[in-house]
Design goal:
- The protein has 14 helices and 2 strands.
- About 75% of the residues lie in helices and about 0% in strands.
- It starts with a helix and ends in a 6-residue tail after the last helix.
- A hairpin with a 2-residue loop joins strand 1 (about 125-130) and strand 2.
- The protein is an all-alpha fold.
- The protein has helices at about 1-35, 45-50, 60-95, 105-120, 140-165, 170-190, 195-205, 215-235, 235-240, 245-250, 255-275, 285-295, 300-325, 330-350, and strands at about 125-130, 130-135.
- The protein has one domain (about 15-350): ABC transporter involved in vitamin B12 uptake, BtuC (Orthogonal Bundle), CATH 1.10.3470.
- The chain has a two-stranded antiparallel ribbon with strand order 1-2.
């Protein structure tokens, strides 16, 4: 009887996980349509739906939605999903709740690379009526500098970890060290930059989904979708690693290969997203913890849920950032930091200092 009761509980819990995933998945298109209609210039929700399905609508609404809000909302979905699954898998393979693209120094490396590119190549703020139009330099050039340095940092961390004996703690400590190093480097560049380049550097470090264009969305999607599919396919390996490395090896898991490949792919995905949109902190750290509270630590459910939930939360934050200081648009990274830090602290205190 006791065994049967355990099986029934396990079945019910799995049904609850699937239901939670379906609820968020079904709410996502609703939030997406609402996000397209809300902003400094409101668009009726039915007019928004007509635009999406090619109906007869005021041309002004078409331009607002298709040229401005639609790429921004899609960028928020992709960035939230990508950063969330990157954080969840990093925490899984390293078995540490503090792991995320931000805490491991990858985001800081991208910020330093972008700032260095702006300083060397020569970016400057171009503004009109107190509104930033662009930063005087091709976005692809800035993204290239950010991407190269973040990927280089990941490779260096993995090589140093190998030299130090391949311990999980080593990667975390190296990430903290590199994060501090690049933060100091960024402050130095800001100190030596002239006024216009300083403004460009500060503006870029504000991660913002408004930088999403159709070309950047194509790049984000082509990287996020295949990487996410691969990471989700490794759920059984991550579940095995959660039991300990020795247990995982006894189950036939190539622990080192899984760790290295996961770290490289998660870092690659983070580098792409951060280089295109700027630093959006706390998404990769907080969303996996919130997801564990809802669906548990089974990676078969945790990773798909983190993908959908991360996109949902960042899309909601992006929508809120448009209306808080309307008609001015607040960079979404500021809002995620304000929201993410208290949530993480409450999770930490609510579990007596343990979040996993």
């Amino acid at each position: 009887m006791y065994k049967k009761e355990l099986i029934n509980r396990y079945t019910r819990f799995n049904k609850y996980k699937i239901l939670s995933f379906l609820v968020v998945l079904l709410l996502l298109p609703v939030l997406f349509c609402v996000s397209l209609s809300i902003g400094s210039a409101s668009v009726p929700i039915w007019e928004t739906i007509k635009v999406l399905f090619g109906g007869e609508v005021d041309e002004r609404f078409v331009r607002i939605i298709l040229n401005i809000r639609l790429p921004q909302s899609i960028a928020a979905l992709l960035a939230g999903a990508g950063l969330s699954i990157a954080g969840a898998t990093m925490q899984g393979v390293l078995r540490n709740p503090l792991c995320s693209p931000f805490t491991l120094g990858i985001s800081s490396a991208a910020a330093f690379g972008a700032a260095l590119t702006l300083l060397v190549v020569g970016g400057k703020i171009v503004a009109q009526d107190n509104t930033v139009i662009n930063i005087g330099l091709s976005q692809s050039v800035i993204a290239g500098g950010a991407f190269l340095l973040s990927i280089l940092t990941c490779v260096i961390i993995l090589l140093l970890d190998r030299l130090c004996g391949s311990r999980v703690e080593t990667i975390i400590l190296l990430g903290v060290a590199f994060s501090s190093l690049f933060t100091a480097g960024l402050m130095f560049l800001q100190y030596v930059a002239d006024e216009s380049r300083l403004a460009a550097i500060v503006y870029w470090t504000f991660g913002d989904t408004a930088r999403g264009t159709w070309s950047t969305i194509a790049i984000m999607a082509s990287c996020t979708i295949p990487v996410a599919i691969y990471l989700v396919s490794q759920s059984w390996n991550y579940n095995s690693l959660s039991l300990g490395e020795e247990t995982a090896r006894s189950l036939g898991v190539s622990v080192r290969r899984v760790q290295v490949v996961t770290m490289i792919l998660s870092s690659f995905l983070t580098a792409v997203l951060v280089s295109l949109l700027g630093i959006i902190g706390f998404v990769g750290l907080v969303v996996p913890h919130l997801s564990r509270l809802i669906v548990g630590s089974d990676y078969r459910f945790l990773l798909p849920f983190s993908l959908v939930f991360g996109g949902f939360l960042l899309l909601f934050a992006d929508m809120a950032a448009r209306v808080i200081l309307a008609p001015r648009v607040l960079p979404v990274s500021i809002l995620t930091a304000f929201i993410g830090a208290p949530i993480f602290i409450s999770l930490l205190l609510g579990r007596g200092g343990r979040v996993l």
